[in-house]
């Protein structure tokens, strides 16, 4: 095998999207000696605080995407809602875009994603494409169920719960699918990395608790409080899912653990994921470094969990819009094991992701208690309540 020799910068990495994921990815890339170019329509996006260069443009702008890809040795993305048509053309010409736009195209469409997973004999909730909005169609499927827009949904958007016929007026009048309402015991997630050589590594399985009012991850517990056999089954399913998608990079696989101990895949994200933020402090290799290793063809790093950890999202407080003010920071930073991440967004609004906090502790129960204190004391508000 011919040894590669690298100069400085090691490579030019293009990132489609300049949000918090792009910022954290750029931070790790800069630490490792890469040149970072981002594409984002907002000249004040979080990643621009770190990146070497920004192309200002929309994620569907063919010319801007082409410019980014042609300037970069490897291109990746931190958001799924992008123009795959032009990326497929460029990929077919030999440009390095990972995960491939063909994998992304499947994941972008929640119906296609479910069909591919089912076709690979992987466990998913019972689902069906919404063919019409007649009551009889939904009665035949059976209540209760979840309706999901096939495209465009994220962080709870594009998803509604339909408990019975009286809820049908809440239906999304868009291309969508419906899924059986799963009687959950826990919601689980696992980050899986696969590099260009086909090497695969799994991170620890984590447990997720959601904010019901916003349907956004509220509390993440690593490792998940589950039996060893379930943990191994989750990892096996997650690896097969990434292989079914021919995925290159890091993938966040969200799953349901039913009350009768069945494992069902909920959704897959082809990028660093909220459920992997804990890896920055708690694992040998963070999800961001792992993604970089995978898409650049390097060996994958260790996924060993160094310490139990709990991660909480910092959401904009309800009733506040404007320039963010952080309340309780000094008190929270006095708690041992706390790491504070602020994304640098210029404005806050209700439930907007403004940052996160990770708490590491040798004792998981102690970490959970500390996380509860952080949630009580740390608030993102603004000068004016609206």
TrEMBL record:
GO terms for biological process: 'de novo' IMP biosynthetic process. Pfam families: ATP-grasp, PurK_C, RS_preATP-grasp-like. The keyword Nucleotide-binding applies. InterPro entries: ATP-grasp (IPR011761), ATP-grasp_carboxylate-amine (IPR003135), ATP_grasp_subdomain_1 (IPR013815), PreATP-grasp_dom_sf (IPR016185), PurK (IPR005875), PurK_C (IPR040686), PurT/PurK_preATP-grasp (IPR054350), Rudment_hybrid_motif (IPR011054). ATP binds at residues 110, 148, 179-182, 187, 266-267. One of its GO terms (cellular component) is cytosol. Keywords: ATP-binding, Decarboxylase, Ligase, Lyase, Nucleotide-binding, Purine biosynthesis. PANTHER family: PHOSPHORIBOSYLAMINOIMIDAZOLE CARBOXYLASE, PURINE BIOSYNTHESIS PROTEIN 6/7, PUR6/7. Homodimer. Catalyzes the ATP-dependent conversion of 5-aminoimidazole ribonucleotide (AIR) and HCO(3)- to N5-carboxyaminoimidazole ribonucleotide (N5-CAIR). Catalyzes the ATP-dependent conversion of 5-aminoimidazole ribonucleotide (AIR) and HCO(3)(-) to N5-carboxyaminoimidazole ribonucleotide (N5-CAIR). This is N5-carboxyaminoimidazole ribonucleotide synthase. It comes from Thermoanaerobacter pseudethanolicus (strain ATCC 33223 / 39E). The lineage of its organism: Bacteria, Bacillati, Bacillota, Clostridia, Thermoanaerobacterales.
């Amino acid at each position: 095998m011919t040894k590669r020799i690298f100069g400085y910068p090691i490579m030019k990495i293009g990132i489609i999207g300049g949000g918090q994921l792009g910022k954290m990815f750029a931070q790790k890339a800069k630490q490792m000696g890469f040149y970072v170019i981002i594409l984002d329509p907002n000249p004040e996006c979080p990643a621009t605080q770190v990146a070497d260069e920004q192309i200002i443009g929309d994620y569907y702008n063919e010319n801007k995407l082409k410019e980014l890809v042609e300037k970069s040795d490897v291109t990746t993305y931190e958001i799924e809602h992008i123009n795959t048509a032009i990326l497929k053309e460029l990929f077919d010409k030999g440009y390095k875009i990972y995960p491939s736009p063909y994998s992304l195209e499947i994941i972008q469409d929640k119906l296609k994603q479910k069909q591919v997973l089912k076709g690979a004999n992987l466990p998913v909730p019972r689902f069906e494409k919404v063919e019409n909005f007649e009551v009889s169609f939904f009665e035949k499927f059976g209540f209760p169920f979840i309706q999901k827009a096939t495209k465009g949904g994220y962080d709870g958007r594009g998803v509604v719960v339909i408990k019975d016929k009286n809820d049908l007026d809440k239906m999304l009048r868009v291309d969508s699918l419906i899924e059986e309402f799963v009687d959950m015991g826990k919601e689980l997630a696992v980050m899986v990395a696969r590099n260009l050589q086909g090497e695969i590594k799994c991170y620890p399985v984590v447990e997720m608790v959601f904010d019901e009012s916003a349907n956004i991850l509220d509390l993440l517990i690593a490792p998940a409080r589950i039996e060893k056999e379930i943990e191994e089954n989750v990892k096996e399913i997650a690896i097969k899912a990434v292989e079914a998608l021919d995925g290159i990079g890091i993938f966040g696989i969200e799953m349901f653990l039913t009350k009768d101990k069945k494992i069902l895949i909920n959704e897959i994200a082809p990028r660093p994921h909220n459920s992997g933020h804990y890896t920055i402090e708690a694992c040998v290799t963070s999800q961001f470094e792992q993604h970089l290793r995978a898409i650049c063809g390097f060996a994958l790093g260790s996924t060993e969990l160094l310490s139990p950890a709990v991660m909480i999202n910092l959401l904009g407080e309800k009733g506040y819009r404007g320039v963010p003010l952080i309340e309780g920071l000094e008190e929270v930073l006095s708690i041992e094991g706390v790491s504070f991440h602020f994304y640098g967004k210029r404005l806050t609004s209700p439930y907007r992701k403004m940052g996160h906090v990770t708490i590491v502790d040798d004792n998981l129960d102690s970490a959970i208690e500390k996380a509860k204190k952080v949630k009580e004391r740390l608030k993102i508000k603004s000068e004016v309540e609206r």
